[in-house]
Design brief:
Blueprint: H1 8-21, H2 39-51, H3 56-79, H4 93-101, E1 118-120, E2 123-126, E3 140-145, E4 148-167, E5 201-202, E6 204-209, H5 212-216, E7 231-235, H6 261-265, H7 267-275, E8 299-300, H8 306-323, E9 328-330, E10 340-342, E11 351-357, E12 366-367, E13 388-400
Antiparallel strand pairs: 1-2, 1-4, 3-4, 4-6, 4-13, 5-8, 6-7, 9-10, 11-12, 11-13
Helix pairs in contact: 2-3, 3-4
Length: 401
């Protein structure tokens, strides 16, 4: 066997030279190429699919994250006037569904007449489907700003400011297409009297910041509307007070005063008044036809209508947001109209709601505590998963510059 010595370094250089003679030079792409919409989503989805063979739990989390990003991308595309999903995700039904159908339609699914009544001082400019609350007596207000003052018009209107999910399954975002966020070991809700040894229900609730007036530029004075983007403001799944009636006493100790027949019997008056369009704020422990506000948890004592139960826990969440200082209140009175104030007791007459999921109710909205007998029949399907979505409206009194 014959061998010969080879200079490895020289051979490598010679080989590289010969290969380079027949190699096509790489094409350098310019930096100013337009972005490929949906490319990042498609890559993230593909990586999550590969992860399924390694770690199923992590893969499901990654796919959920991709769907959330598709939701937000669809929202921004919708605001930019885009009506078709990006081509890069058109062959992934999950991403297309999240992009296209995940968001509540801020045009066709809103009861726009619920924006009214609208007032200037105590002068009603336009009537609405429900009664109005008190307004300042003077249309012109002078508000202090530090050592100076500003003059403006006192206006009043009803602002769509929050969306609410009600669901039995932890992490299901009802108003965002029904996709699920993996929240780990979280208890599942119950519904119906057959689900538990004792008759009762438990639901999770999600609260979304929803500044629709700001998005559509209907009113341009920043002092008169909620600003920003849609955001998930509260998830009951991560709140230990929501599924523990005893622990919830930390924020509502007064509940012990109203757990008796006399206090609960007074709620009948609130139910009648609320159904007539005027909730009684003095009976703050009552939720009208839905039952008792307390305790501020997802439990109810019985369920003869999933729709009624979903409204009750939604109204409790609105009360809870007030109690924790996360939602403030405006006041329809002279001088006081200049600012917003914390309100640990919810002013029920200044809130109303409409259903947007499962079946959008675009023709009307309802006061807190009002009976659902007149409209609930067609919105309470017996074959549903008992997931509901609501748009909450709040009375806004402010000084328009």
């Amino acid at each position: 066997m014959h061998t010969r010595n080879v200079n490895v370094k020289t051979a490598a250089q010679e080989s590289s030279r010969k290969m380079g003679e027949n190699t096509v030079k790489a094409v350098t792409l310019p930096d100013n190429l337009p972005p490929f919409p949906g490319l990042a989503l498609r890559i993230k989805w593909g990586m999550a699919r590969v992860m399924l063979a390694i770690d199923k739990v992590k893969a499901e989390c990654e796919m959920g994250d991709a769907q959330i990003e598709a939701q937000f991308e669809g929202y921004h595309d919708f605001r930019a006037g885009e009506t078709a999903p990006p081509h890069m995700i058109t062959d992934v039904p999950e991403l297309v569904s999240a992009w296209k159908d995940g968001w509540h339609n801020p045009i066709s699914d809103v009861c726009w007449k619920c924006l009214f009544p609208m007032s200037l001082g105590n002068i009603q400019l336009a009537s609405g489907p429900q009664r109005d609350t008190a307004n300042p007596s003077s249309p012109i207000q002078i508000c202090p700003v530090g050592v100076l003052y500003r003059v403006g018009l006192a206006i009043g209107f009803w602002e769509p400011m929050a969306m609410v999910d009600v669901t039995r399954e932890p992490g299901v975002m009802v108003n965002m297409g029904g996709f699920k966020i993996n929240l780990g070991r979280t208890g599942t809700g119950t519904a119906g009297q057959s689900d538990r040894p004792a008759a009762g229900t438990f639901y999770h609730v999600h609260w979304y910041k929803y500044p629709l007036i700001f998005w559509l530029n209907i009113i341009t004075s920043l002092g008169c509307l909620q600003t920003g983007d849609m955001d998930i403001a509260y998830l009951s799944e991560v709140d230990p007070l929501w599924n523990d009636s005893t622990l919830s006493m930390l924020i509502n100790p007064e509940a012990a005063l109203f757990g008796n027949l006399v206090a609960q019997g007074a709620c009948a008056a609130d139910a009648v008044s609320s159904s007539a369009g005027v909730p009684v704020s003095a009976l703050f422990w009552c939720a009208g036809s839905q039952g008792s506000i307390y305790p501020l948890t997802g439990y109810t004592s019985g369920e003869f209508s999933p729709l009624e139960s979903s409204l009750l826990v939604s109204e409790r969440m609105a009360f809870k947001m007030h109690r924790e200082g996360l939602v403030w209140n405006s006041v329809g009175a002279d001088s006081a109209v200049c600012n917003q104030y914390p309100s640990p007791i919810i002013p029920k007459e200044r809130w109303r709601y409409q259903m947007v999921n499962m079946y959008p109710e675009t023709g009307n909205c309802h006061p807190f505590g009002a009976s659902t007998q007149l409209w609930g029949t067609t919105h309470n399907s017996p074959s549903s998963k008992k997931n509901f979505g609501y748009l909450f409206w709040r009375k806004r009194n402010c000084v328009f510059l």
